[in-house]
Specification:
The chain has 336 residues and is α/β, with parallel strands linked by helices. It contains 10 helices and 13 strands. β12 and β13 form a beta hairpin. α4 packs antiparallel against α5 and α8 runs parallel beside α9.
């Protein structure tokens, strides 16, 4: 990635992740949640936590938007608000840049829209009477934000973006979604995820990665430059990771298989000490040699970088639940 190599002054590399889960579903859930599931508790993912902690009710923008560029693996990419409720659920988009039903139908007037909202609220109030439920309240708040969010439609429309900016990013879906992500961040959206799929190169790894790595290098470096030029990078944390890494060895199909015991991630921008490298593997890349960490330590570092106490507690009923597992510490070596 030659373009990103010239921008590492703003980036910290973490080379010692051992997350242990080597299947797509389990690995994706771990890297969304930062911890393993419990049978009777649905944890919120990182996007929902950041939406809760950093979202501003006065801004008419979505708090959490998740892009995914393919149909493969879509079920593993959605994310979840967990016990935080529907108010902090992601707006999930796949093969398009725009939400499908954000615009009001032309034959629905403002008055029609208001009357429908009033009727829904009346029915909701009747249903909620005598019931005590945080989930009910969360759904009501989510519905209450819909009208305001409809005004954010223009953020997903690139027609007013200068042509020179479009040319810099490129025409791929991943590039377009990265551009929309910058617009959302600029408008105040706390968390945007742009997932470039599909990296599962069990065969023909080198041909596949020739395309994927080249595109990632270009789009990511362009996004970082764009954020920096607009004065946004110092307040924006750009995270690059997957659900696991790939084997250092090549299989019989000239591919690389799932590999969760020694892999890497990068952190750029807000709260990060640029130009740092944390952790190392052995010479063969088979095992972490120095400063092994798991998902919990990475999440604690991310939260601390953006100004959130990783040991802050939510309550699920009367049960206190910290943002990261007890005993987890952030990686101070990569923090500014």
């Amino acid at each position: 990635m030659p373009k990103m190599a010239t921008r590492l002054h703003n980036t910290a590399l973490i080379r010692s992740l051992n997350t242990q889960i080597g299947d797509h579903g389990g690995g994706a859930r771990l890297m969304h949640l930062g911890r393993r599931d419990e049978p009777n508790l649905k944890y919120p993912d990182m996007g929902s936590v950041l939406a809760r902690e950093l979202g501003r009710p006065d801004l008419q923008v979505p708090d959490y938007v998740s892009f995914y560029t393919a149909t493969e693996g879509r079920g593993n990419a959605v994310g979840q608000p967990g016990f935080l409720g529907a108010r902090y659920a992601p707006m999930f988009l796949t093969t398009d840049n725009k939400p499908a039903h954000l615009s009001r139908l032309e034959d629905i007037t403002d008055l029609d829209h208001k009357e429908r909202a009033d009727l829904r609220q009346l029915l909701s109030n009747r249903f909620a009477k005598g019931r005590v439920s945080e989930s009910l309240g969360s759904h009501n708040v989510a519905y209450g934000r819909v009208r305001g969010l409809m005004s954010s439609e223009k953020l997903f429309d690139l027609s007013d973006e200068p042509q020179k900016i479009k040319d810099r990013y490129g025409n791929s879906l991943f590039a377009q979604q990265a551009m929309v992500a910058r617009r959302l961040v600029e408008a105040g959206t706390p968390f945007v995820k742009v997932a470039r799929a599909w990296w599962d190169s069990h065969g023909q790894n080198f041909e596949t990665h020739l395309e994927l790595v080249t595109e990632l290098d270009h789009v990511m470096s362009t996004l970082l430059d764009d954020l920096e030029e607009r004065g946004l990078l110092e307040d924006t944390l750009v995270i690059t990771l997957a659900e696991f890494g790939r084997t250092p060895t090549i299989n019989a199909s000239l591919g690389r298989d799932h590999f969760a015991r020694a892999w890497s991630a990068s952190l750029t921008g807000c709260g990060i000490k640029g130009g740092t490298v944390f952790g190392a593997t052995d010479e063969d890349g088979q095992h972490v040699k120095d400063n092994e960490i798991g998902a919990a330590e990475l999440f604690a570092t991310i939260y601390k970088a953006v100004g959130i106490d990783p040991h802050h507690e939510y309550f699920f009923g009367s049960r206190p639940i910290p943002l990261v597992d007890p005993g987890t510490h952030a990686i101070d070596e990569v923090l500014a």
